[in-house]
Amino acid sequence: MVDRNFMELSHAFYTRNDVLDIARDLLGKVLCSSFDGIVTSGIITETEAYAGVTDKASHAYNGRRTQRTEIMFWDGGTAYVYLCYGMHSLFNVVTSLQGIPHAVLVRAIKPLEGIDVMKERTGKKAIGDKEGIGPGKVSKLLGIHFSHSGWSLVEPENQLYGDRIWIEDRMIRVDPSEIVSGPRIGVDYAGEDALLPYRFRIF
Predict the structure, then answer these.
(1) Are 153 and 50 in contact (CB under 8 A)?
(2) What is the CA 70 to chain-centroid distance, rounded?
(3) Tens-place pLDDT, residues 71-114
(4) Burial of 148 (C-beta count, 10 Å sphere; 0-12/13-18/19+)
(5) What pTM does this model have?
(6) SS3 2
(7) How confident is the model at residue 159 (pLDDT cuts 50, 70, 90)?
(8) Measured CA distances, 184 to 81, 161, 189 (Å)
(9) What is the distance between the alpha carbons of residues 90 and 186, in angstroms, rounded to a whole number?
(10) Cβ-proximal residues to 114 (8 Å cutoff; 6+ apart), any chain
């Protein structure tokens, strides 16, 4: 396990009932990964909330359960990572209690640690803030793959070889006036639910 001096988010943070509150509260937190002992991280700057069985934009709408979406019904603090367009791994945090399939998509990060590794993963000569805008880019920078779906963010002893994904609170203050909310992206199929202001970002 990587020796860290920062406070990791607790299980209780993720199991709260209001997915919108959690999506907002994740702004300013630091999403971290460690593979082969190498840490990469980024400050979360944009999220989207998905409110389970009542949300037409959610993969779990109307209680839909498949081999992929079953993880959404697990306990809060679990990674739900799915493959989009056959090429992009998108990282989500499962929230609420077991059986309630709430989730938050991390849409953007500000790259922080492991910049040289991020360059290797992306083939970029430089990594600026814009390189972390977009959920596919988030996973690419941090080495997160859809095969990591189901990993616990709070129980590192369950992971093999010390590899893990987690989120830290580094006491980065985000003023509520700095948060912009609006409709989620790419969910036009959800009808009126596509217009819900469930996307949060720091401007």
Answers:
(1) no
(2) 17
(3) 999 999 999 999 998 789 999 999 999 999 999 999 999 999 99
(4) buried
(5) 0.94
(6) coil
(7) low
(8) 18, 36, 11
(9) 13
(10) 38, 39, 40, 41
CA distance 6 to 124: 29
Query: Backbone phi, then psi, for 86, in 5-degree steps?
Result: 70, 10
State the chain's mean pLDDT as an integer.
94
**Whether the Cβ atoms of residue 140 and residue 131 lie closer than 8 Å to each other:** no
Question: If you search the block for the tokens 């640690």, which residue do you land on?
Answer: 113
Closest C-alpha to 97, from 8, 10, 13, 17: 17
Q: Residues 189-201, buried b or exposed e (16+ Cβ, 10 A)?
A: ebeebbebebbbb
DSSP letters, 6-55, are SEEPPHHHHT-S-HHHHHHHTTT-EEEEEETTEEEEEEEEEEEEEEGGG-
Distance CA 114, CA 152 (A): 22
Quote the tokens at residue 16.
């709260």
Tokens of residue 163, six digits? 């590899």
Q: Write the CB contacts of 46 (distance below 8 Å, at least 6 apart in sequence).
A: 27, 106, 107, 108, 133, 199, 200, 201, 202
Domain 7-202 CATH assignment equals 3.40.50.620: no
Q: Is the pLDDT of residue 5 over 80?
A: no
